[in-house]
Amino acid sequence: MLSIYTNITQGEAWISKYKGEKAAFACVLGFTKTGLIPGISAAGSTPEDRKYTALADAEFLYYGTNKKGQYPLPPLIAGASPVFITRAVVETLGIPVYLFNAGLLETPTVPTIDLGGVPAKCLSQGAAMDFATVQHLLNQGMIWGERLSRNKENEYLVIGECVVGGTTTALAILTGLGIAAQGMVNSSHPVCNHAQKWEIVQAGLKEMGRLGDGERKFQLITHNSSLLTLDPLRLVAGVGDPMQVAVAGMAIAASRHGGVMLAGGTQMLAVFALASAIAQFYNLSWQPEEVVIGTTRWVAPDSTCNTTKLAQQIGKKSIITPSLLATGLCFNDSRYVQLQAYEQGFVKEGMGAGGACIAAYLIANWQQHQFIEAIEAQLDRY
Prior knowledge:
This protein is of the alpha/beta class. It has helices at 8-18, 47-50, 53-63, 83-93, 131-149, 166-176, 194-211, 215-223, 232-239, 242-254, 266-282, 307-317, 337-340, 353-364, 368-381, and strands at 2-4, 23-30, 97-103, 113-114, 156-162, 259-263, 291-296, 323-327. The chain has one domain (2-381): Nicotinate-nucleotide-dimethylbenzimidazole phosphoribosyltransferase (CobT), large domain (Rossmann fold). It is 45% helix and 11% strand. The chain is globular. Residues 218-228 have low confidence and may be disordered.
């Protein structure tokens, strides 16, 4: 039920340390207008649907089927929202959940901790957020990472996210940090729309350079003559989204006191790279060996991208190569076609689903039949 794809030594040590220990689950919600570009994401079948994906997922994660939310789960091109997976785990095992609003279009209808962020503009503009907002989100992330990790009822923190269009902002951050990520990022589509993502990222970085110090700055961003020539917070302000810097701050601070599982694929690999760059640029202490990436078996070996190689590329720019873990959850035998769609490459991951499944295995040694029973029960009631 669990595989390690990169930095096996670190991954094995992390698993051994936290097997049988309790966890808390945090989910950071954000929005980027990049997600409204036609065809950029399958996390909502239309751009209008995608405006409310995070709000709907947050409602379902919080209430499950116990209460009808204001925002129905958006129709997908195929498949069911990964929030069914995450809800099944946290509800059955009683894992405490903390929801954070890093920057959404609307105020969530469920209790959330407001980090004081804003929705990001489309990254193609090269001016996604104000620098002061990015600084504020980093500080808030660090404050909450500290608070949650000091709660001795939980030995490690699982951090998920919901940002539609977030794999494209992830590609922008990775590229801006000098990491060769073109053609490697994941997507909610069965076959990743690499060309579309790359065109948007190139436009955003070029525009960011034009708005900054001209062509010289653009060259430093794209070719990374020296990582320290570019403040990584400036990069987020140019082409990022509000979740990324908030979670980077959480991971930095939480790693000082215990384990952190960044629950996601490409987006969380980008957060790890960003946290590493921020810690280096601002001389912040953190414990990267306490941080792992937790995702699904639909992401880690995805043949339409190269998640494993991306993790290794990040390792060339960071203190260590992040350890990429993946749950072995499989839906081939599910009686729901919406879950079977995951095996055809739809959806793949989201709302910390992979990390939640890994936590269920570590906490209660869940096996395939237990996952299927709990997840299908959510769909039955829905």
